[in-house]
Amino acid sequence: MKPITINSLREEVGATVTLKGWVQQKRASKGLFFLVLRDGTGLVQCVVNQGTVDESSWEDTTVATQETSLIVEGEVLADERQIGGVEIQVSKIEVIQIVEDYPITPKPHGTEFLMDRRHLWLRSRRPWAVMRVRNRIIMSIHNFFQERGFLQMDAPLLTKSAVEGTSTLFEIDYFGSSAYLTQSGQLHGEVLAMAFNKIYTFGPVFRAEKSKTRRHLTEFWMIEPEMAFYDLDMNMSLAEDFLVRIASDAMRDCKEELELLGRNLDALNRVQVPFPRLTYCDAVELLRSDKTQGLVEARQHELLNEQSDLERERTENRANYARLKEWKKRRIDAREIEINTRLDQIEEALRNLPKWWKSASAFEWGSDFGGSDETLLTWHFERPVIVHRYPEAVKAFYMKRDPEDDRLALGMDVLAPEGFGEIIGGGQRADDLAFLEAQVQRHDLPEEAFEWYFDLRRYGTVPHSGFGLGLERTVAWVCGLEHIRETIPFPRTLGRLVP
Ligand code: 4AD
Ligand code: MG
Question: What is the pTM of this model?
Answer without folding.
Answer: 0.95
